[in-house]
Sequence to fold (391 residues):
Amino acid sequence: MTKHLDTSKEWLERLISFDTTSRLSNLELINDIDTYLNTLGIQTRLTHNSEKSKANLWCTIGPQQIGGIVLSGHTDVVPIDGQAWTKPAFTMTEENGKLYGRGTSDMKGFCAILLAMAPEMKKRKLRTPIHFAFSYDEEVGCVGVRSLISDVVENLPLPKAVIVGEPTLMKIVGGNKGGRAFRTTVKGVPGHSSEPSRGANSIMAAARIINYIEDLQHELESKAEPDCVFDPPYTTFDLGVIEGGTANNIIPEYTHFNWGYRSLPSEDPNILEQKIRLFISKNIEPRLRAISREAGVTTELRNDTPPLIPDHQSAAEHLIRHLTGLNESGTVAFGTEAGLFQQAGIPGVIFGPGSIQQAHQPDEFIEVSQISECINFLNKLVDWAENNSSA
Ligand SMILES: [Zn+2]
Fold:
């Protein structure tokens, strides 16, 4: 029986029982972790959102010095709304070597293991510090971790590497795409639909912008490099929400749509945004303005998450390869917090238990064997941190 396995399961059960869907507060969960770590004699730092309804938690085990290893996990989960769960979502169920519940693989499983191992980490004489970084609102655009990272960079000794424990089946993932999300509002000119030339139809204008986005998508696909390490091997657009109009016989005044893209690390994300803004200002707005000076298009950037740029020589990849013997590293198309750490000068990899196939799904689960594998890895990390000083 793997040491720490039972306590990891207990912690997972405890973490799942807090419904930390991103739209809700995560404070009860954070306070629970905070109290526990303090009881172990581990000091914590919280960074809150402006409403003080959510918090990140940071702590250091071992010496307060540069060169520590950050173990990072988000505490929020995606909603279960509209999903057909056959097992309880906020109570853990163990069945046939699997642990079921919302967040088991994404990513309370990883957080639970860290908490279960904290007493042992505290007992050992670490020469390299180990930090825990628990964030809020990752699932809505890596929102929370940004203030945690600023706090660390501005006020604390800089860590050497970060391991973001998103589910990768304990394989090294060294890169992910970046993402930007926008909301575009087209304001047209309303009128009776029998006289379209007196108004400006916002749905039609929106459709032309969306067609342009689709054309850009085809262009990017056709230019994909055959040796690109990402799948799909090009930047992809998403268009997930559109709303506009009120009735068939009214020229619609307003249309809103939410869109964005996930770009390859090798691509400058500004260029696509500029292309689309230029298309709107040259081809869409003049027609609208010809009908009314009040008409026009506004595009609001709602989220900007940098990619994780693959770096096989980074301290983070080097450390994991050294500890595991793995030598391949892959890439993923979904966004993670790792790029934000990298941007702040802390190299990162994504490496954690469970599979992304189970993330965000009904009856989300994690294999117990994945938990054990992660514990084994962290045991090696703790041994390494005890015997090596990276300061
Ligand atoms: Zn996640």
